[in-house]
Amino acid sequence: MRRPYYFMVDSITVFLGGIDFYLNISNGGLLGLLLRTAQNGRNYRKFLSQYPYVCCEPLEDLYQLRRRLNAFDIHVLMDLLFSYSWREANVGALLAALAAPADCLEILRQVKPRLPHGTKVVALALASCGDTLPEELTEHFQLLQEIRAMLAEIPHEPLPLRRNYSVEQEREFNRIGPTLRQRHPKISESELPQVIQEIGYGEFMLSHKEWLMQTHPGNMYCRLTRHLQWQGFLVRHAARQRLRQPMPMSIKKT
Q1: If you write DSSP's letter for every residue of 155-195 in order, what string do you get?
Q2: 218 in helix, strand or coil?
């Protein structure tokens, strides 16, 4: 099994969330996934350019695909195709079909025999990179191109990922990890910089979101997180204010 280039926690968080993207990229579910995604995009297309501050629930598949593509590169593709299971490889093939990287033909040809449940999505990825499209996948490919155009309308910027630690770092981290977890069972936001500085690679104790908020606070997804936190505060504040208001007295009829 190939050692991942990017930190596994980040890959799982960014690329592997959402049950549909595990079950529906296989040969039997792919067309339905593409049809649903394209139809929802047509119905609510006017909202695509307003992301992330206006979010429309039927567009969630497109939002998730856009987020994955924001972090996609050749190293991500190699990780998904060769470092995990066939499900992750199917996700990588779908992202390659949407991103259409010109230098991935041989990589995709190499993985195709290993993915009997993903022959269709690999064929779409190969066609997107310049290979011949099988005639029976014409409808799939038209839907894919339509979805790619929709994704281009969603505001986007790169989504950084952490490089995986080295084998030596992994051994050391496994050795001192239990002690670190005892010392820092729940790290507060104010303590994070100190812990990261104290531990040479303490950043690996953080979730992807925590690391992103600490190291790339201006990133679009950090701004969205703060926006949602502020909205949640306003909702909670309004609820508290309503609870404090005196209940109207009932008028008893005589």
Answers
A1: -------PBPPPHHHHHHHHHHHHHHHHH-SS--TTTHHHH
A2: coil
What tokens appear for 27 in the block? 């040969």
- For residue 189, what are its two tokens? 């936001």
What is d(CA 145, CA 57) in angstroms, rounded to the nearest whole number? 22
Per residue, the 3-state secondary structure of 9-67, as one string, reads HHHHHHHCCCCHHHHCCCCCCHHHHHHHHHHHHHHCHHHHHHCCCCCCHHHHHHHHHHH
Both tokens of residue 85? 């299971």
Place of tokens 């067309």: 31
State pTM to two decimals.
0.81
CB 85 within 8 A of CB 5: no
Q: What is the pLDDT of residues 55-107, one digit of tens each?
A: 899 999 999 999 999 999 999 999 999 999 998 999 999 999 999 988 899 99
